[in-house]
Amino acid sequence: MINNSTVHNVLVIGGGGREHAIVHALSRSPQVGKLYCIPGNAGIAQIAECHPEIKATDLDKIVAFVDAHDDIELTVVAPDDPLALGLVDRLQAKGHRAFGPNANAAVIEASKVFSKNLMKKYGIPTAAYQTFSSYDEARAYVETCPVPTVIKADGLALGKGVIIAETREQAQAGLKEIMLDKAFGAAGASVVIEEFLTGFEVSVLAFTDGKTVLPMASSQDHKRAHDGDEGLNTGGMGTFSPQDAYTPAMADTAMQTVFLPTVRALEKEGRPFKGVLYFGLMITPAGEVKVLEYNARFGDPEAQVILPRLQNDVFDVFNACIDGTLDRITLSWDERAAVCVVAASGGYPEKYEKGKKITFGDIDPDVLVFHAGTALCAECGEIVTNGGRVLGVTALGKTLSEAKKKAYDNVRKISFDGMFYRNDICKNH
Ligand code: AMP
Ligand code: GLY
Question: Which atom from ligand 2 is nearest to the alpha carbon of 302?
Answer without folding.
Answer: 1
